[in-house]
Specification:
With 187 residues, the chain is α+β, with helices and mostly antiparallel strands. Helix content is 47%, strand content 22%. The protein is built from seven helices and eight strands; from the N terminus they run H-E-E-E-E-E-E-H-E-E-H-H-H-H-H. It has a four-stranded antiparallel β-sheet with strand order 1-8-3-6. Helix 6 (165-172) crosses helix 7. It is globular, with a radius of gyration of 17 Å.
Length: 187
């Protein structure tokens, strides 16, 4: 799926012809291990993942923690930095080779001034992002690491093998050895 298709599907509209699309989009290719947004960098774009997997991490006082993974047909950005135009406290890194489409901050802000469709799209994605974050918080407070891994395995099984075990363990907040025991039990 390309961003224009995603945009139209979120809004329940027919596909916009490229020449009428309200946002300029640039396609970029990112290699595995490449950092998309660094700690301390002001985020200047939102990204749509055509192909690949990225991780969003944050530094803790002793280690780095995985906040979330983003997969094909999802949007990702260091959103707080993007919205406030302040240095990012998170980092985005490609876990596999990725093809991303990006929209620059300046272009999105201009489109908000001129396009009701872009405004509606932004509102819907903000709502979805809030729900995703809220559900993650609830899961961390109410479910075991085993339950969270089982859900991840059920919903994202086609991607699990491409994510290093230590990163999944960080995401779940457990040691890799504990994840190995969980994986043996589930499989």
């Amino acid at each position: 799926m390309q961003f224009r298709e995603f945009f139209s599907s979120v809004l329940g509209l027919q596909l916009f012809p490229a020449e009428d699309f309200p946002l300029p989009i640039e396609t970029v290719h990112i290699k595995k291990g490449e950092i998309i947004t660094q700690y301390g960098q002001t985020e200047n774009a939102v990204y749509f993942i055509n192909k690949g997997i990225v991780e969003l991490t944050i530094k803790s006082y002793m280690t780095e923690k995985v906040i979330d993974f983003f997969f094909e047909n999802e949007m990702v950005s260091a959103f707080t930095s993007f919205l406030n135009q302040l240095p990012s406290d998170v980092q985005i890194c490609a876990l596999v080779d990725c093809e991303l489409e990006l929209i620059l901050h300046e272009d999105l802000m201009k489109a908000y001034q001129t396009s009701i469709e872009v405004n509606k799209f932004g509102r819907i994605l903000t709502e979805q992002g809030y729900i995703r974050k809220s559900n993650r918080e609830k899961d961390l407070l109410t479910k075991t690491a085993e339950e969270r891994y089982a859900e991840m395995f059920e919903t994202k099984s086609e991607y699990i093998n491409n994510i290093p075990v230590n990163k999944i363990a960080k995401y779940l907040g457990i040691h890799p050895e504990s994840l190995s025991r969980i994986r043996k039990k589930i499989n």
